[in-house]
Design brief:
Elements lengths: L9 H17 L2 H4 L3 H7 L2 H17 L6 H14 L6 E3 L1 H12 L1 E4 L2 E6 L2 E7 L4 H5 L6 E5 L2 E2 L5 H8 L6 E7 L7 E6 L1 E4 L3 E7 L2 E6 L6 H15 L4 E5 L8 H9 L6 E7 L7 E3 L11 E5 L6 H11 L4 E4 L7 E7 L5 E10 L15 E2 L31 H12 L1 H20 L1
Parallel strand pairs: 11-12, 12-15, 15-16, 16-19
Antiparallel strand pairs: 1-18, 2-9, 3-4, 4-5, 5-6, 5-7, 7-8, 10-11, 13-14, 13-18, 17-18
Organism: Vreelandella alkaliphila
Family: Belongs to the peptidase S41A family.
Protein name: Peptidase S41
Length: 433
């Protein structure tokens, strides 16, 4: 179809004068190399005329005057937001905030959100932030932010509302699954400096590595943690905790998986353009060796966390335990624009080494264990020697650190079961020798 200006209305002519340079500036390089006439040939004439008519009617009749720049930006925002929940047009502040969050420092309440069926949903609260301390949970639906209903907001608008000056307060209304009434949370914003990696020794020989999100520094931090635990005592088992990890940088996920794998595919991507088709494989060096491994996931484990869990599961490197993950298996590229703003565009899908798509599927655990708390029913606890008055002490009282860890294992059923599984794997392994 040839686009002839003699067939186009006057408003459409004015709009095309704006639209064609915009298409050429934002198009991929092969498209830019084409002539303006070639681009115009591919544009749908009727839709362009309708767009131009809508543009002109807003300019003439909207209750308040709106400048061309605002209308065009809104058009671009709408064009991207209708593609999928993760593509977005980013103004300068949004672009800067996104870059800051991948570096591990940003302002806000420490929460990762997404949309599902038109609802603003908590993917996960980040560890040691106002959101996690207040008790927000994965899959909580945020229905209002400071009194503003979220069903009228785009994802980026909701994120902008939740960010603000440290020390200022934010009020959100949350609807939790299985509950009829909303919960109200009042949070105080902080400068979020999230350390993505933590580690500790649960019991002699059994390590715990927690990764709360994947930042550019995460692989090196995880490597140092593994080496530090191994220096204290050779590891007989390790728990990799990816629960409520919303994802992050793709290269960081590859780097972490590589710490546990010495060969084979980690992840690959497929998209329409050749530069979006990538594959990543493990290098021979691995600080974790063949230490028995349990990977904890839940519904808050998304994106990069699912890449790591899927790779370790497909390569039979560890046992994945917990509940089904979130299912965010799409790749977003952050593209800087010439005006200091940016574009976040979904360009490909992730696939595990065995060719499983993560998108809207998630990772199924090898061993399903729901989160809970170990409790002893009243009257069921049996009396032991240590409960009798005047009993002889066979050894010193339990150290405080061990008592605190024992309490933590009682409160975190999934963690307790992961530790039990590691011990069982070691027992079986010793009997086979």
């Amino acid at each position: 179809m040839t686009l002839s200006v003699t067939k186009v209305s006057a408003p459409a002519k004015r709009f095309l004068a704006t639209l064609l340079p915009l298409v050429l500036l934002t198009a991929p390089l092969p498209l830019v190399a084409q002539s303006a006439n070639s681009v115009a040939d591919d544009l749908p004439l009727e839709e362009i005329q309708t767009f131009a008519e809508v543009f002109e009617r807003i300019k003439r009749g909207y209750v308040e005057e709106v400048d061309d720049r605002t209308l065009l930006r809104n058009a671009m925002r709408g064009m991207l937001s209708e593609l999928d929940p993760h593509s977005a047009y980013l103004d300068e502040e949004e672009y800067r905030s996104l870059r800051e969050s991948t570096q591990g420092e940003f302002g806000g309440i420490g929460i990762e959100v997404g949309t599902e069926n038109g609802q603003l949903m908590v993917i996960t609260p980040i560890d040691d932030t106002p959101a996690s301390r207040a008790g927000l949970l994965s899959r909580d639906v945020i229905v209002a932010i400071d009194g503003t209903p979220t069903d009228s907001l785009s994802l980026q608008e909701a994120v902008n509302l939740m960010r603000g000056e440290p020390g200022s307060q934010l009020r959100i209304s949350v609807l939790r699954a299985g509950e009829e009434s909303t919960r109200e949370f009042t949070l105080t914003r902080e400068v979020i400096r999230s350390e993505s990696v933590k580690h500790e020794v649960l019991e002699p020989g059994y390590g715990y590595l927690r990764i709360s999100q994947f930042q550019s520094r995460t692989p090196e931090q995880a490597r140092r943690s593994l080496e530090g635990m191994a220096r204290e005592q050779p590891l007989e088992g390790l728990i990799l905790d990816l629960r409520n990890n919303p994802g992050g940088v793709l290269q960081a996920a590859v780097g972490v998986a590589d710490l546990f794998l010495d060969e084979g595919l980690i992840v690959y991507t497929e998209g329409r353009l050749s530069d979006t088709e990538m594959s990543f494989s493990a290098s021979p060096e691995t600080p974790a060796g063949d230490v028995p491994l349990v990977v904890l996931i839940n519904s808050g484990s998304a994106s990069a966390a699912e890449i790591v869990a899927g790779a370790l599961q497909d390569q039979r490197r560890g046992v994945v335990m917990g509940t089904e993950s979130f299912g965010k298996g799409s790749v977003q590229q952050i593209m800087p624009l010439g005006n200091g703003e940016g574009l976040k565009l979904t360009t490909a899908l992730y696939y595990t080494p065995n060719g499983r798509s993560i998108q809207a599927q998630g990772i199924e655990p090898d061993v399903e264990v729901v989160r809970g708390r170990l409790e002893i029913a009243e009257g069921q606890r049996r009396i032991r020697e240590a409960d009798l008055d005047g009993h002889l002490s066979g050894q010193d009282a339990m150290p405080r650190e061990r008592a605190e860890m024992s309490q933590r294992l009682r409160e975190d059923y999934q963690l307790s079961e992961a530790l039990n599984l590691l011990k069982a794997l070691n027992v079986v392994d010793r009997r086979r020798r």
